[in-house]
Amino acid sequence: MTSETLTARPLTRSSVAPRPLPIPFARAVLTPEARAAANRVLESGWLTTGPEVADFEEELAAQVGARRGVAVSSCTAAIELVLRGMDLPAGAKVLMSADTFCGAAAAILHAGLVPVLADVDPATAMPGPREIRSAAVAAGGVDAMVVVHLGGSPTDVVAAADAAQVPLRRVVEDAAHALGASVAGRPVGTLSRATCFSFYATKNLAIGEGGMVTTDDDDLADVLLSTRLHGMSRDAWRRYLPGGSWRYDVRHEGLKANLTDVQAAVGRAQLVAFPRHQQRRAALAARYDARLSGLDGIRLPPRTALGTHAWHLYAVRVRPPFPINRDELIERLARRGIGTSVHFIPLHCLEWYAAHCVLPPGGLPGADEVYAETLSLPFDQHLTDDELDAVSAAIWQEGM
Ligand SMILES: *Cc1c(COP(=O)(O)O)cnc(C)c1O
């Protein structure tokens, strides 16, 4: 028996917690101000939806130039609530990209609607007008659409709506990656009927969990204020304000999808740091471009002249003549302690969604091609130049 086993301590949470890779794919770090703000609310005696949420809604709406913001528990809930607010008939068809996170498809199905998957243009990994038109025609027309700005890369919402023959009031944006992006000088947040943001732990504005709808449509915003909380006509905060009444009605079918004041306080503080974080992300993207350009078989993320990129992800494509494929490169980088990820496994490759979405008759060759090649490199505002250079050097070494 070695002295080590004699002195072995019982397993504690910290001794079994997985150790992060030396260079993780992404870090979720709150600013000191955000942690202090959470504490302030925790000590205030009001924990659920209240004044912090109202202030966060106002500040985030102002940031994107929208009339209204409605905070909710997640971007997925935001998309579901907006779709429900459109009052589409049950089973109405909603077009969306095949190559995105499954949250939007879940929202469509939860709202009693049917996702129609559009293939993507391999150059952008998003559906272009051609893919949108052909998916809409093959489905016999669609009633609404979810537009995603993949990785933070701005997409032309008006052109997408035109191609789908859907009016803009039936378009909702999945902007989970796109806070800080703009299209033709207009911030993402006012381009369609309603824009849905995510504050999930790894998103550009991280709270841990949370979401927000921004819109210029007061009627929709008022419906959302109620449907995020059981369809009640008045939430707890407003019931308990001076002069508030205990009476309320329930006028809509609603979800339990409100945001708490603790989360909102964190979000407000993170919003103050947001411009600085976005600047850092743009600088890191430019540095990756410079370090990786000229390496055969690594295609850099496309740059668009359409507007400002929010740089949520830095995703390259790994293709011949790179000597190893994407999966092998993930393995080799992991062995070097470098974390990566794949955005996304397309929906037709997920069993539940393959069974519940309308797929184009010709399959999804664009999404298949992107899926086989795409690789998201370590990326967030806390990545150091040295770490980025080490990741780039490792990819060069594997590519020779
Ligand atoms: C993260 C993400 C979502 C879901 O956001 P939640 O706030 O976790 O619901 C939706 N769409 C995309 C593209 C995402 O990356």
Protein architecture, described:
The structure is a single chain. With 400 residues, the chain is α/β, with parallel strands linked by helices. It has two domains: 32-272, Aspartate Aminotransferase, domain 2 (3-Layer(aba) Sandwich); 274-398, Alpha-Beta Complex (Aspartate Aminotransferase, domain 1). Helix content is 39%, strand content 12%. It has 15 helices and twelve strands. The protein has helices at residues 3-6, 13-16, 32-42, 51-64, 75-85, 103-110, 129-138, 157-164, 218-227, 236-240, 261-292, 326-335, 351-356, 365-373, 385-398; strands at residues 68-72, 93-97, 114-118, 144-148, 171-174, 182-183, 186-187, 194-198, 211-215, 298-299, 315-318, 374-376. The strands form three sheets. Strands 1-9-8-5-4-2-3 form a seven-stranded mixed β-sheet, with helices on both faces. Strand 6 and strand 7 (186-187) form a beta hairpin. Helix 11 packs across helix 15 (385-398). The protein is globular. It starts with a helix and ends with a helix. 48% of the residues are buried.
> What's the tally of helices?
15
Given helix and strand content, the structural type is alpha/beta
What is the CATH domain class of the largest domain? Alpha Beta
The CATH H-level superfamily of the largest domain is Type I PLP-dependent aspartate aminotransferase-like (Major domain)
Strand content: 5-15%
Q: What CATH architecture of the largest domain do you see?
A: 3-Layer(aba) Sandwich
General shape:
globular
Low-pLDDT stretches: 1-8
- Classify the oligomer: single chain
